[in-house]
Every structure is written in structure tokens, then in C-alpha cells.
Q: What sequence folds into this?
């Protein structure tokens, strides 16, 4: 037996088949390309603010562990994100860690020996299904309607059938960028046997939120992130809900999960939130301009957006070629066509800075002509 085959046999013996079947989450290297694939805020801070921030982190004691509960940061976030006073806050290393913590705490079997399940919609945020797979939890994906709205009848039927421990609903949804009907979500929360996590990662660009409704439902949790506010590099997510739930999730949180530089930087950023708010307003205005321009292009359907990206559908069989041609011209967007289903022939375009949007439009028009 060769060394290679021996290693392969060991992996096959000890690594779960579900994990072996997965592909690692791939993030392409953009190089010098215009990066419109990851829903990032394209704007840096002004120099004067950068200098003030550098003075703050100059005094950070890197030789010490951070505050394990990030208490000061939590209070800043409570005010900035309008978390109700009666609700508890839990922080994660990005929303991904919070999703993982919720699932870790709730994975298990019911009295009949059935594994606790996770339910969401398709298409939706890919990490719900991926993390469920990591933790060996059954995942139920309920297809959206053709207009990307919720199929309430099917959702309620699946909830009744599978009795999911956790339901995730992104609001606005990624990658479709739309807000789901509020009453339908309320009906889902009422019908849910476990918790419903409303993932508001793109709240900064939307005009609605379930945060004020936390006091109405014992099983509602609201998740936010600072990534879309221009702080993606900090990797900071927030979960708000009833203290009883968050106390349980906190038990699986790794110690010191929010590092000292993130805490100091996020506190500083929130104190200067007016700069971030102006950037958000600019992105929302540019989103409408970009949507209008995309809507004028023949053989492209642009879908209205409540996020910082726009989903477009192109002529059948053209998405892969358009994606590749744009990449050759130095513009990187997200090709969703390989996912199939409702995302067949679809591309996702992040709203960038004005010059980036214009360059993308020119490249796109040249590809289609």
C-alpha cells in the first residue's frame, strides 16, 4: 500500500462522508479587478477619521485578552441598532459564527430519536445549509415562488411535517435582494415549534425590520452584522432576542471570540456612525441609478432591490459567458447560474462606487453588443 492510498484510507475512515462530499467555501482572489461580487461597502474612511482610529488602537493592550463579554461594545450596538431594552445581545465573529452557535446549541434528537432539523428557503443564504451539514442536522429548503416571494402554504406544511428546531429567513433575502411579506413571516413565527431567526444582514439598505417585534414573540431572534455598514473586515455579528435563548447559545460560544482590535474599532466606528450612514445613503441612491441603467439594457431583467446588490437575469445560456467576459475586462461579479433552479441565468452585482458601477455597465454593454 502506498503512502498516498494509506492517507486516503485514513481520511475515508475518519472524516464524515457528508464533509468529504463538500467543497470548501471558495472566495476568489480579485487581484486588481473591480470587485462587485461580495456585497461590500466600496468606501474607505476619510483620512482624518483613519488617523483618529489609529490613535485609538495605538492604546490597545494586545498583550491582554479582550473583554470576554464585549460589554461596552454591546451597549454601543444596542443603541445603534435599536435593540429593545428587554432583549439580550450576543456577539459573534461575523454572522456565520452566530448561525453556527445557534445550531450547535439546538442540534440533537427528539424523543422519537429523530434529528432536529433546520428549515429555510431556496434560494437563500448558503451558510444555513452548509453549517447544518457540518453539524449533521437535516436541512429542509422550501422553494420560493417565481417572483421570489414566500410560498406560505408550502412553508407551513413543511413546518408541520418536519417540526424544525430552527427556521432561518434572510430579510432582505440573499441573493434575491427582496423583503418578504411581513404578515407571512409573522404566521411562520407563530407556527414554528422552535426559533425563527430573521437575518437582517442587509438592514442598513432596507426600510423595514423585525427588531421592534422582539417583545411580541418568545421564539423570535434577530441577527445583524456590521459588514454591510462598511466594516466587513471586522467580522462582527449581533444576535438579539430573549435572554433565556441567548443564555443557552452563549454556552457554546468560544471564549474571547470578539478580539480586542475588533471591539475597539467597532466602538470607534459606531461613535462616528454619521460617516457610515452617509455612505449607506450614497449606496442606496446609486442602487436606484444602477437599477435604472440595468433595466434599460435589452435581454436583461433587473430585480428591484432592498439590499446593496442587484440580481439580474440574462438570456438563457448566456450567464457563464457574460461572467467570464466581464472578468476578462477586469470586473468581478457573482455568477449564480451554476446554482440552477430559480437562479438559472442569474448574475448578482454589488453596488459599488459610482466609477465602478459605470465601468461595469460599459463592460456589460460591450459584452452584449
A:
Amino acid at each position: 500500500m502506498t503512502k498516498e492510498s494509506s492517507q486516503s484510507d485514513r481520511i475515508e475512515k475518519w472524516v464524515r462522508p457528508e464533509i468529504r462530499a463538500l467543497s470548501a467555501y471558495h472566495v476568489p482572489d480579485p487581484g486588481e479587478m473591480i470587485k462587485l461580487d461580495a456585497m461590500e461597502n466600496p468606501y474607505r474612511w476619510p483620512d482624518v477619521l483613519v488617523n483618529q482610529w489609529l490613535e485609538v488602537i495605538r492604546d490597545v493592550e494586545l498583550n491582554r485578552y479582550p473583554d470576554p463579554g464585549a460589554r461596552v461594545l454591546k451597549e454601543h450596538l444596542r443603541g445603534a441598532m435599536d435593540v429593545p431594552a428587554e432583549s439580550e445581545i450576543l456577539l459573534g465573529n461575523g454572522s456565520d459564527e452566530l448561525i453556527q452557535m445557534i445550531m450547535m446549541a439546538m442540534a440533537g434528537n427528539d424523543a422519537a430519536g429523530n434529528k432536529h432539523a433546520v428549515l429555510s428557503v431556496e434560494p437563500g443564504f448558503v451558510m444555513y445549509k452548509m453549517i447544518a451539514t457540518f453539524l449533521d442536522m437535516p436541512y429542509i429548503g422550501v422553494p420560493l415562488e417565481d417572483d421570489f416571494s414566500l410560498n406560505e402554504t408550502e412553508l407551513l406544511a413543511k413546518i408541520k411535517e418536519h417540526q424544525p428546531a430552527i427556521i432561518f429567513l434572510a430579510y432582505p433575502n440573499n441573493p434575491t435582494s427582496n423583503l418578504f411579506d411581513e404578515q407571512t413571516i409573522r404566521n411562520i413565527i407563530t407556527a414554528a415549534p422552535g426559533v425563527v431567526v430573521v437575518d437582517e444582514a442587509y438592514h442598513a439598505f432596507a426600510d423595514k425590520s423585525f427588531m421592534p417585534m422582539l417583545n411580541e414573540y418568545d421564539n423570535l431572534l434577530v441577527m445583524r452584522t456590521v459588514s454591510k455598514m462598511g466594516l466587513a473586515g471586522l467580522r462582527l455579528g449581533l444576535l438579539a432576542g430573549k435572554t433565556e435563548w441567548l443564555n443557552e447559545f452563549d454556552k457554546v460560544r468560544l471564549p474571547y471570540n470578539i478580539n480586542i482590535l475588533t471591539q475597539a474599532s467597532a466602538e470607534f466606528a459606531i461613535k462616528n456612525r454619521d460617516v457610515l450612514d452617509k455612505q449607506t445613503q450614497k449606496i442606496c441612491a446609486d442602487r436606484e441609478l444602477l437599477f435604472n441603467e440595468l433595466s434599460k439594457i435589452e435581454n436583461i431583467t433587473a430585480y428591484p432591490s432592498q439590499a446593496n446588490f442587484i440580481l439580474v437575469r440574462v438570456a438563457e445560456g448566456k450567464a457563464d459567458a457574460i461572467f467570464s467576459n466581464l472578468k476578462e475586462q477586469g470586473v468581478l461579479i457573482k455568477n449564480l447560474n451554476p446554482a440552477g433552479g430559480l437562479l438559472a441565468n442569474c448574475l448578482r452585482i454589488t453596488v459599488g462606487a459610482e466609477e465602478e458601477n459605470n465601468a461595469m455597465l460599459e463592460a456589460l454593454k460591450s459584452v452584449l453588443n
Remarks:
- The first strand starts at residue 34 and ends at 35.
- The two ends are 57 Å apart (CA to CA).
